[in-house]
């Protein structure tokens, strides 16, 4: 009976203000999760959860020495957290201050705009493939790439095949590095990306391909590569590299990973070669 009375009192206190409060907190947590999704911060958070569970278990099992050591470790982590998460914290504050905290990710663009973007990227890639012009084009999705954009040269121009082709003209000031697209705008060019350290990648692959895979390992972005030596087209996503793509194959991959409602588990055609 006392439990029912307490429950009735709590329900009486639950009003529209409480609902709004819960929704705001849920939205903020969701946006924070989107900011760190696909980054190394996720692994750090998993490590902290393991430490918290181990600390609680050592207390329950009366492992006093182990518990004391874990508590000291947790205390040191509280001090170290701002340093460890410095890139993520900086990016989150920049998004809030810049008004991008409420911005739609690329995969939530209108279907017509997204189709137009894919067509422009495909048109540019096919022309650069025919002329063997090396290129690295990144399409941002849920994970913010602001730290890489800041390290490049700001462009902030509407994406078009002609703009992308001019960016990667050999010996042009911006041809070295990656061009990063957010929404329907080319945010920056000459961006430096992290190289993959995977030993599974073929030794014949150059810096562009390793940078594309490296970025896809740390984020959910798509990275399209045009080989300067062969003109072959590849795409890196979620740590995998799909090589020797023709126009239809690249289009299908882009649609699969960008268009709303498309399944990422769809079987790939036989002409795609993994890694």
Task: Describe the protein.
This protein is of the alpha+beta class and 275 residues long. The chain folds into 2 domains: 2-98, no CATH class; 106-274, 3-Layer(aba) Sandwich (YojJ-like (1), CATH 3.40.1700. It is 52% helix and 14% strand. It has 10 helices and 8 strands. The chain has helices at 2-13, 16-36, 41-60, 64-84, 86-98, 111-130, 146-151, 161-167, 207-218, 247-258, and strands spanning 135-139, 153-158, 178-182, 185-191, 222-226, 233-237, 240-243, 273-274. The protein has an 8-stranded mixed beta sheet, with helices on both faces. A hairpin with a 2-residue loop joins strand 6 and strand 7 (240-243). Helix 6 (111-130) crosses helix 8 (161-167). The longest helix has 21 residues, at 16-36. The radius of gyration is 23 Å and the shape is globular. The chain starts with a helix and ends with a strand. The model is unreliable at 99-104 and 262-275 (pLDDT under 50).
Spatial ordering of strands, largest sheet: 2-4-3-1-5-6-7-8
Query: Structural class of the secondary elements?
Result: alpha+beta
Q: What count of structural domains?
A: 2
- Helices and strands, in order, run as HHHHHHEHEHEEHEEEHE
How far from one another are the termini? 64 Å
**Overall spatial form:** globular
Biggest sheet overview: 8 strands, mixed
Question: Helical residue percent?
Answer: 40-55%
| Average pLDDT score | 80
Work out the strand percent: 5-15%
pLDDT < 50 stretches = 99-104, 262-275
How many extended strands?
Answer: 8
Class of the largest domain in CATH?
A: Alpha Beta
EC number: 2.7.7.85
Protein name: Diadenylate cyclase
Function: Catalyzes the condensation of 2 ATP molecules into cyclic di-AMP (c-di-AMP), a second messenger used to regulate differing processes in different bacteria.
Subunit structure: Probably a homodimer.
């Amino acid at each position: 009976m006392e439990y029912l009375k307490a429950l009735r009192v709590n329900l009486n206190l639950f009003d529209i203000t409480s609902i709004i409060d819960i929704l705001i907190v849920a939205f903020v947590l969701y946006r924070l999760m989107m900011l760190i999704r696909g980054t190394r911060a996720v692994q750090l958070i998993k490590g902290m959860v393991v430490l918290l569970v181990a600390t609680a278990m050592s207390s329950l099992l009366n492992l006093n020495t182990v518990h004391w050591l874990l508590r000291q470790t947790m205390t040191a982590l509280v001090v170290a957290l701002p340093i460890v998460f410095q890139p993520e914290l900086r990016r989150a504050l920049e998004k809030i201050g810049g008004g991008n905290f409420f911005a739609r990710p690329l995969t939530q663009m209108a279907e017509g705009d997204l189709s137009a973007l894919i067509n422009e990227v495909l048109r540019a890639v096919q022309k650069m493939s025919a002329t063997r012009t090396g290129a690295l084009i990144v399409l941002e999705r849920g994970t913010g790439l602001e730290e890489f954009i800041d390290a490049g040269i700001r462009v902030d121009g509407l994406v078009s095949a002609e703009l992308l082709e001019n960016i990667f003209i050999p010996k042009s000031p911006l041809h070295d590095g990656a061009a990063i697209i957010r929404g329907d705008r080319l945010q920056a060019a000459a961006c430096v990306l992290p190289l993959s350290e995977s030993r599974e990648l073929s030794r014949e692959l150059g810096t562009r391909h390793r940078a594309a895979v490296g970025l896809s390992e740390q984020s959910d972005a798509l990275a399209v590569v045009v080989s300067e030596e062969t003109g072959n087209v590849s795409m890196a996503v979620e740590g995998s590299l799909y090589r020797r793509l023709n126009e239809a194959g690249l289009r299908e991959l882009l649609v699969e990973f960008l268009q709303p409602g498309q399944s990422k588990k769809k079987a790939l055609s036989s002409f795609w070669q993994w890694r």
